[in-house]
Amino acid sequence: MNGIMGEEARGEKARIDLSIIVCAYNMGRELPRTLYSLSPSYQRNLESLNYEVVVLDNGSTPAIDQSALQEFLPGVRVVRPEVISISPAAAINTLAGQLQGRAIGLWIDGARIASPGLVHLAMEAWRTDPAKIIGTLAFHLGRDVQMRSVFEGYTPAVEDDLLASVDWRKDGYSLFDIAVLAGSSISGWFGCINESNGVFMDRSLWDELGGLDPRFAAPGGGFVNLDFWERAVQASGGSPWMILGEGTFHQVHGGAATNGTANDRTQMQNEYAALHGRPFRSPFYTAHYVGTLDAARFKAGNAVPVDLHRNVHAVRGRHFRVDLPAATLDSIQRGTLRTRYKGLRLAKNPFDLALYTSLLDSLRPATIIEVGTSEGGSAVWLADQCRALGLDTTQILTIDLSPPDLDLPNITCFSGNADAPEATFPGSAIATAPHPWLVIEDSAHTFEATLKVLDFFDPQLVSGDMIVVEDGVVADIEGPHYRAFEDGPNRAVAEFLKHTGDRYRIDEDLCDFYGHNLTYAPNAWLLRT
Fold first, then answer.
1. Is 255's pLDDT higher than 90?
2. What pLDDT does residue 149 have?
3. Which residues pair with 369 in a beta bridge?
4. Which residues pair with 514 in a beta bridge?
């Protein structure tokens, strides 16, 4: 019999190749998607595989209704332990001992949707060498890992809309387009991961390891899955199987790790340290690989080293990452630094030059206030663009520590220090300037200076004005010079949006015109509402 085992095939003589345990707690929204992703109608190339999926209901209220799940995965069974614990480790071990599969699959977190080739490739690795654990990369749905995004407005409703934007039930690989690497898998396809959600192994290996360590008593098991992967890798001779081109995709559900506080995670770390006598450290191994990578999946699961150095990753559910490969961005930056206009340093990238042209035409500002002007090339360019658009009366107020000596119509240069805007900016000239305003913050690129400039202009901006914070891109450009800014502009934008509430909207049409945040002002084209 192919696919999920029916009742008539569960007799003593029936051969079950694989028993998959899916642990769930209060996942009425998420579990049906996970189970559908494990069904024969979704998983590919399972014609010769007899497998079963059993849900461990670890105390859901109300209890999980087995009959309601048949629509998503015919033949699925639900088991509820007699004794419910906040850690599912002991209950999982008990259930695994009752199942008959020659191989065991474990979803310790039942909110994870599988990609379509995952089970087939896991079984291919198992048949090739059943002595080794078989691991899978983990991804989080959304623009950022959910430990951060849930505190920036990423909700189940937002995720439902995100999932509806791709036809994942017909093409599960489209999930890679709306997800990011989980923190435990941040090293990517060819690195070493901390744990595997969607892990497979021969029953003899499960028995050798004794299953999960029931001493892990923190909510959700704490680091029990990390401990299991670490021990399984060691038992595999330091050479586990890793599946390329597949993954599991975490749905937001109020989980102990993703929705917990830093203090919650510290307690989990402390429990691990108490049991092991040392802090957790990611296991090092040399993997065997099964599967293939196309360009899209390679990119989705390829580690972005610069992300490890970020001080802020996302705001309002939007990652700050600029959608360009590091080498391409480095080339563009070299050209940007050489760009001049009418003999003056301009230093604006080609994407933002086009975006400013579009913004000038739609906003039609009466006043442009530029903080940070260098030689004045950008002020001259803005004035010329305004005249080309018929904005002959638009005034440009440009401010710099050492302002250029420009004597041109509609441009006035002022001396001012972004670290002390209240004391040094031309207050009367700004206060009497006609709206709408376009304010461009392009000064020191530090967190402190950028935030002071934003806070200075905030009470003076009116609905329809625009403020742009340039050079958040420094977080994406490799090299010690750019690391020295400590992600200043992006940190300031995130803090500013946090304490100004709904007064500002990120103009996603401008940020994403050429691709997600393909601008030097990621998430920082801000419209006063």
1. no
2. 85
3. 397, 439
4. none
With respect to residue 48, please indicate whether it lies within any of the assigned structural domains: yes
Q: State how beta strands 18-24 and 103-107 pair.
A: parallel
Helices assigned H by DSSP within 42-180: 66-69, 89-98, 118-128, 146-149, 156-164
What the block records as the tokens of 340 is 């001049």
Q: What is the CATH number of the domain that holds 73?
A: 3.90.550.10
CA 104/CA 98 separation, integer angstroms:
12
- CA-closest candidate to residue 257, choices 247, 269, 246: 269
Task: For the full predicted model, state whether its pTM sits above 0.90.
Answer: no
Torsion of CA 523, 438, 399, 512, to 10 degrees: 20
Angstrom distances, CA of residue 237 to CA of 132, 147, 240, 356: 8, 32, 8, 57
Reported residue count of the chain is 529
Q: Where are the beta strands (DSSP E) in 183-337?
A: 199-202, 241-244, 248-250, 288-291, 314-315, 318-319
Task: Count up the domains in the chain and report the number.
Answer: 2
DSSP 8-class letter at 523: T
* β pairing state of 437-441 and 367-371: parallel
Average pLDDT over residues 429-439: 98
273 and 352 share one domain: no
Q: Taking the alpha carbons of 111, 114, 119, 122 in that order, is the dihedral positive or negative? A: negative
Q: Are 172 and 166 in contact (CB under 8 A)?
A: no
Half-sphere exposure of 294 (CA within 13 A, CB side): 6
Q: Give residue 437's domain range.
A: 314-528
CA distance 385 to 361: 9
The tens digit of pLDDT for each residue in 260-280 reads: 677 888 899 999 999 999 999
User: What distance in Å separates the CA atoms of residue 526 and residue 189, rounded to the nearest whole number?
Assistant: 36
User: Which residues share a beta bridge with 179?
Assistant: 141
Choose among 140, 443, 176: nearest CA to 313. 140
224-235 vs 262-276: helix crossing angle, rounded to 10: 40
The mean pLDDT value for 448-457 works out to 98
Evaluate whether 366 touches 394 at the Cβ level (below 8 Å): yes
Q: Which helix (H) or strand (E) holds 344?
A: strand 344-345
| Contact by Cβ (8 Å): 511, 519 | yes
